[in-house]
Amino acid sequence: MLRLADQALTFDDVLLVPEYSDVLPKDVDIRTQLTESIELKIPLISAAMDTVTESRMSIAISELGGIGIVHKNLSIENQSNEVRKVKKYESGVVRDPITIRSDNKVGELIQLTNELSISGMPVVDDGNLVGIVTSRDFRNEQDLEAKVSSIMTPKAKLVTAKEGENLEVIKRLLQDNRIEKILLIDDNFKLTGLVTLKDINKSLDFPNAARDKEGRLIVGAAIGTKPDTMERVQNLIKANVDVLVLDSAHGHSEGVLNQIRLVKSEFPDIQILAGNIATGKAAQDVVKAGADAVKVGIGPGSICTTRVVTGVGVPQITAVAEVSESLKNKNIPVIADGGIRFSGDIAKAIAAGAHSVMLGSILAGTEEAPGEVELYQGRSYKSYRGMGSLGALTDDQDSSDRYFQDSS
């Protein structure tokens, strides 16, 4: 029997009523929670789409205080590598840095730095700091059989800083001594970390960047429900991903709920953002399964054809409001995904109860987006497509499970 829902509204149907304010724009605090344990400085998330978010977009948006979600239309290895690029880009204090022994050969040192894409490392023998070696020391070294001890900067000449030292003081030490790396030590001259001038400059240039506890930029990655999902999850966690986004066109389904339970049972500490959903009942079930945040939006996106093809969906303002109301007594953030065309839509979504919004089309044409550049009548354009498009489904077929498609 047909049951008609109450009146439902989307972004173009509503406006915010202005009221008295004694808050100046410069005093506004827009920090929010992505999950209970992950804070964003701005309520913006770049969408897990193959023409929107890979490492370059993730880095750019995290530096500004948001977070990027690396799409899953990649091999497990490539997606994990995209996450590593973000985590390595601005690492702050490097804890447990890769080290080498003084009796290792220069050839081994060069091989190690090439494999790890690093420019140097501390030299440690039996737990004792004895020196540091950088690319400047081995760049032109011809004798690959020589010992690292013959080219390193020895302990007596090391420039170090005490653990917990102010970044400005460390930066001054680096500049005064014309070096690029400085080692952090404790009272017993034991190595506790490493800081680079590049990372300090990034920290000072982007004071509002969204970082983890170790000072690295935060990043998320999309997963699905395919048989290899747990292998993907394991590799992403090894790459130090901060949040997993279980990405499905219909998040209120048995496969999605079972996948949340499975991931949480094996990795209880990993944060999971699950969706997409559009009702309060869906939100309750997804959270009960173990989700730390929910993503709302069935078909509101500018590129999305879900509502046209299937006839399914809920207008976005109503969907966000209903989900938010159903979770009001729980500490579960709500993300509005899709339909954001103007900055005012962001304000409307937040007013409806969203903690943050996910952006796709707004970011798709930027330099940081991975979409292909196309020339048309002398102008440059970036390609943009939905993850259910034929191109996305056939490129690597890793987005097919989002729409419950068999990729075989």
Automatic annotation (TrEMBL):
Matching SUPFAM superfamilies: CBS-domain pair (SSF54631), Inosine monophosphate dehydrogenase (IMPDH) (SSF51412)
InterPro entries: Aldolase_TIM, CBS_dom, CBS_dom_sf, IMP_DH, IMP_DH/GMP_Rdtase_CS, IMP_DH_GMPRt
GO molecular function: IMP dehydrogenase activity; metal ion binding
Residues covered by the CBS domain: 93-148, 152-210
Coiled-coil intervals, chain numbering: none
Keyword Metal-binding: yes
CDD domains according to UniProt: CBS_pair_IMPDH (cd04601), IMPDH (cd00381)
Complex and partners: Homotetramer.
Protein name: CBS domain-containing protein
Originating organism: marine metagenome
